Amino acid sequence: MRIRIVDAFTDRPFAGNPAGVLLLDDAFPDDDRLQNVAMEVNHAETAFAHRLPEGGAADWALRWFTPVAEVAMCGHATLATAHVLHTTGAHPGPVRFATRSGVLIATPTADGSITLDFPTAPLTAVELPAGVAEALGAQPAAVFDTSPDVGDLLVELADEKTVRGLAPNLKSLGAYSARGIIATARADDASRGYDFVSRCFFPNVGIDEDPVTGSAHTALAPHWSARLGRTDLTGLQASRRTGLVRTGLRGARTLLTGRAVTVIEGELHA
């Protein structure tokens, strides 16, 4: 079985967010098998996909696993899977994925990027939970719950410098949401090519800091579109690897556009 490592939301190797991608010949094996492969790959997510019969609502079934758990939504591994399908010729053109988050569509564009069509996450303003500022190491200016779709707390901080300088207590952060914390701020200088920055910490699913998080941008897009007065924006996830996500708010749906690069291709023997 072929296995590929794809860097997503980047146009160069060793940046963006790496994902394992396995295109299966048949239906999904048992969950323990999938989880063990994801544990071995040991990236934020490993995607497993298999072709569905023609004539249905979707073309491929898709599931995502972190090294410790299956997740209900993942943007970068969806982008990585669409990239593999497109570049190998396994599925040219738009592809419809059947997932735990419904049917998600990935469309290759003329410039070589891929656009994902995801549900927009709900944002509910909440009071700052006691202990969050201490665990994060910064005082939020506003806090939002993204449940049930994403399951994070989204916290807006004072400025880009504060987001970049975070060194949170990861053990403590896990107590405040189902998955983790999205920290964000307006870009200091939009002429650099991005409108807002973010960092994402997900200790509850085995990811201390996710390099680039597509699913988080389904919440970041409505948040920053409301503040900046534009529906089309670009977010920089300011992890060590960094990555760019172009967002397009379309009401109940959010478009996430980025590039991907296959870095490793090999054979799974186990």
What can you tell me about this protein's structure?
The chain has helices spanning 31-41, 75-88, 132-136, 160-164, 170-173, 217-228, and strands spanning 2-8, 17-24, 45-51, 60-65, 70-71, 95-99, 102-108, 114-119, 124-125, 142-145, 152-156, 180-186, 196-202, 207-210, 232-237, 243-250, 253-258, 260-267. It is of the alpha+beta class. The protein folds into two domains: 2-119 and 256-267, Diaminopimelate Epimerase, Chain A, domain 1 (Roll), CATH 3.10.310.10; 124-251, Diaminopimelate Epimerase, Chain A, domain 1, CATH 3.10.310.10. A hairpin with a 4-residue loop joins strand 4 and strand 5. The longest helix is centred in the first third of the chain and has 14 residues, at 75-88. It is globular, with a radius of gyration of 18 Å. This is Oxidoreductase. It comes from Streptomyces alanosinicus. It holds the Pfam family PhzC-PhzF. GO terms for molecular function: isomerase activity.
